Fold:
Amino acid sequence: MNCQLNIACRTLVGAALWLSGCALMAPQQADLCANTDWYEIGRQDGAKGLSEDQLELRLRSCVPNQRERVAQLYLTGRNVGLVDYCSPTNAFNLGRNGQAYTQVCPHPMERDFLREYRRGQRVFELEQANRQLDQRIGSLSQELERALPQDSRNELADQINELRQTRQVNERELRGLTR
Structure:
């Protein structure tokens, strides 16, 4: 019986400590929320192309009476950040780096964004294709060095020439896209 009473006491003490910790946490969370630059956090999230869903995650640290003010500051900052994210230069760089577009640009900016994003994607595709062509040319060149019958050598040389021509076409297109 003493053991059961001891376990019950520990459980009650643990619950009391947990509840007091929760009571202490609410003011700390309120301070954290009140002392945070929500405009800047929103601006940074917008500049990264993060969706508005981030706001809901971030509002969890705020007490209910602060959420409206925080949301307004955050969304204002996010809209400023989206101007940077949705710029044609950033769009091209995102596409060229093979990064996904998260469908966050406002409608008036999206047309120009998508045009540059697709141009960047095409550069990314051509650069990848050229790397693969270079690898294939390298492996065929090694085969050519080891090939004995002249027919095999001629066939390998023809394949290498075709790949080099394809690479040249890609390079011309790349130069046009990156001007």
